[in-house]
Amino acid sequence: MDIKQHIREVPDFPKPGILFYDISTLLMHPGAWQHTVQQMADAVAPHKPDLLAGIESRGFLVSAPLALKLGCGFIMLRKKGKLPGATVRHDYDLEYGSDSIEIQEGAIQPGQKVVLVDDLLATGGTMAASAALIRKVGGVVPAAACIIELTFLNGRDKLDMPVTTLAKYDQ
């Protein structure tokens, strides 16, 4: 099955000149969604994760069913101020500004293997920051996985772990 047939392309979103790859249409198709989750599971399982870390917010949609399928835990990486309780934050630079990502304190035990999961790999900045945050709290990041990769943005060049993507777009 070609999952690209179930990913909608939305021109000029969120601003003119941007082509947005929308997984909503993939999520609406049970067969395509099950196929996608199975492909992700096949890619992630060899890394034997203790936890999957979903990156806000569409990464949650991918990580939760994948964690169930793999029989491992799921944690959320969120923007500053979105998680209850004590958190650990990592600040990082973007092309035009900066951002922060947080995890709940104690969500990862030292040495736990945590695979990063998101819907899309673009410039790699958020994924690299997520890996840095996981390591900051003592986790090990053996791999990352995304449904979509925008290869023309060279995001995987910023990452120091293997990355699996299912649908690659060259423009």
Can you describe what's shown?
The chain is of the alpha/beta class. It is built from 4 helices and 9 strands, in the order ββααβαββββαββ. The chain has a 7-stranded mixed β-sheet, sandwiched between helices. A two-stranded antiparallel sheet has the order 1-2. Strand 7, helix 4 (125-136) and strand 8 form a beta-alpha-beta unit. The chain is globular. The two termini are 22 Å apart.
Short description:
It is built from four helices and nine strands, in the order E-E-H-H-E-H-E-E-E-E-H-E-E.
Give structural attributes.
single chain, two-stranded antiparallel sheet, 171 residues, 7-stranded mixed beta sheet, 26% helix, alpha/beta
Q: Roughly what percent helix?
A: 25-40%
Strand content: 25-35%
- Written as H for each helix and E for each strand, in order along the chain, the element string is EEHHEHEEEEHEE
Rg estimate, integer Å: 15 Å
* Annotation field: number of helices: 4
- Placed side by side, the strands forming the largest sheet appear as 5-6-4-3-7-8-9
Q: Quote the average pLDDT.
A: 97
Biggest sheet record: 7 strands, mixed
Q: Report the structural category.
A: alpha/beta
Q: How would the global form be characterised?
A: globular
What is the straight-line distance between the termini?
22 Å
Please count the beta strands (DSSP E, at least 2 residues each).
9
Can you tell me the residue ranges where pLDDT is under 50 for at least 5 consecutive residues?
none
